[in-house]
Amino acid sequence: MTESNGSAAAERNEEMPDWEKRFRAPRVSLPDWAEDAPDRSLFVSNATGTYELYAWDRATGEQRQVTDRPNGTTDGVLSPDGTWVWWFDDKDGDEFGVWRRQPFGGGEDELATPGLDASYPAGLALGRDGRTAVVGRSTDEDGTTIHVARTGEDPVQIYRHRESAAVGDLSHDGTLIAIEHTEHGDAMHSALRVLRPDGTPVAELDDTKGGEKELGLEVLGFAPVAGDTRLLIGHQRRGRWEPLVWDVASGVESDLALDLPGDVSAEWYPDGTGLLIAHSFEARSELFRYDLATRDLVKVPTPAGSVSGATARPDGSVEYLWSSSAEPSTVRSTTGKVVLDPPGMRSPGSVPVEDVWVEGPGGRIHALVQRPAGATGPLPTVFDIHGGPTWHDSDAFAAGPAAWVDHGYAVVRVNYRGSTGYGRAWTDALKHRVGLIELEDIAAVREWAITSGLADPSRLVLTGGSWGGYLTLLGLGTQPGAWTLGIAAVPVADYVTAYHDEMEALKAMDRTLLGGTPEEVPERFEASSPLTYVDQVKAPVYISAGVNDPRCPIRQIDNYVKRLEARGAVHEVYRYDAGHGSLVVDERIKQVRLELDFAERHLASS
């Protein structure tokens, strides 16, 4: 770069508003590393303006962009020997595609699993022999199938079921395959099965038996040791997610019984002697090392905030991706070294969150509040509702809420019933009265925001993406006097049509949440569908949607919009050429700018 070009770039950066800088500033994911070649890593970055995969040779320092697609790429895996980068190619961003692979050092892409047609992905595990892959596939026609694919041989199907399932992991020696399945019909809570590569069952663990359908299990990984048959799993037997070690050969379960109040996940240290524990509680997270021999739990020092990913390295150090609402994400290490520092413009920070607890109809509700520095209420207030629904907002850096704060708004994020991180009972409360339960909690926090003096009741924005977009549209119809305007991104708008058009895994989740199909429980789908209440919507509505979205398909959004049009309701719709959101930075900025403009125009006239 010449000096004049560099000066011009610096000038443009100076003129750019902070909210836009937060989106454009280069950022990286936590690097994944090859188990048998730990100097070879794979990470995601938006350095080119689109989120793509990058290979990084730690020994030489060389970084190389692996993928380059108009809609971006984030799903990638390194082979254990570090020879290959596998990446999922969904041509139109619709999540329906095939696995391709490319040599770590560069070269032509090739079809990774010849003989397997395009599908939705349902897990992938790669063998250490360099030629074996266990591939999970999901289609509307076949349900879930799992195949063992070996280089030079036709793929062999070892599992098939109408209900959803996924590949969990492949043992170190390649002789055991762990899968998660929902053959019992509860898509929110999986059981586990271990198979031989020829499909022969070895062991089964199912916490949904005996009527306990609200319990579930998840695969966290086989021990990274040759000949070891221990499988690390997550369970919910004490009302929260916790890890235990299950020896699938002997059947022995080793309960860790960790004295931690929140949800707990774990992964193996590379030598198999300990576990890296991730503890999530009340919108923050922390790390520990658990010694399997002594049962000692030792805290791994991390700053206050949120750790969104962590991994233990062969030297015993821990690398982790950390941020807070005030500070952008960075990849840190317990060695004190900077792990991966993207070049270019630095992202500005934002204001810290305040914790608020509000009594609601189902118990205490946790909300995170941000307000412009030095501002006093009542303020125009944005209720930014998270997706999922099995997710939660945390004390982590987010460019979207920060943009609203920069424009003078207070931002409230509600971890409603259905959110994770507050115990199984809170998450599983979301059944049958889907959508309406969450809105009861949001309404309770809205009442607090007004009575506390934070929010101006005449300038209240309800917004969210995906499930948050669904709750936005449902809230505008069922609480028409509560909101000044609504902004819904990639929402469910017509629940019945969405069910029939969406990917099979989401159909299974909807059947679990609502207790059946639209034909079996039509009254529940009707009660939970925004389309049912569209004629009651009073507030201006803005909707953005990806035309290739398999999760919240475009036809059901068009149905909702037609109903708005038919009665002359104030609304705007923005459709873009992608799937469930965009990985292109310019597109994300365009969408935020449109949302900010819509709010400014309609709040000014309210």
| N- to C-terminal distance | 49 Å
Task: Give the averaged pLDDT, no decimals.
Answer: 94
Number of strands: 35
| Alpha plus pi helix count | 11
Unreliable stretches covering 5 or more consecutive residues? none
- What would the principal axes of the Cα set say about the shape? globular
Question: Major beta sheet, specifics?
Answer: 8 strands, mixed
Q: Work out the strand percent.
A: 25-35%
Structural class: alpha+beta
Q: Helical amount among residues, as a percent range? A: 10-25%
Strand order of the largest sheet: 28-29-31-30-32-33-34-35
- Calculate Rg over CA atoms: 24 Å
How is this fold's topology laid out?
Elements: H1 3-15, H2 18-24, E1 32-34, E2 37-45, E3 52-57, E4 63-65, E5 76-78, E6 84-89, E7 98-103, E8 110-111, E9 120-126, E10 132-139, E11 143-150, E12 156-161, E13 165-170, E14 177-181, E15 191-195, E16 201-205, E17 217-222, E18 230-235, E19 242-247, E20 253-255, E21 263-268, E22 274-281, E23 284-291, E24 297-300, E25 306-312, E26 318-323, E27 330-333, E28 354-360, E29 363-370, E30 379-385, H3 399-406, E31 410-415, H4 424-428, H5 436-451, E32 455-465, H6 467-478, E33 485-489, H7 495-501, H8 504-514, H9 522-528, E34 541-546, H10 554-566, E35 571-576, H11 585-604
Parallel strand pairs: 30-31, 30-32, 32-33, 33-34, 34-35
Antiparallel strand pairs: 1-2, 2-3, 3-4, 5-6, 6-7, 7-8, 9-10, 10-11, 11-12, 13-14, 14-15, 15-16, 17-18, 18-19, 19-20, 21-22, 22-23, 23-24, 25-26, 26-27, 28-29, 29-31
Helix pairs in contact: 2-3
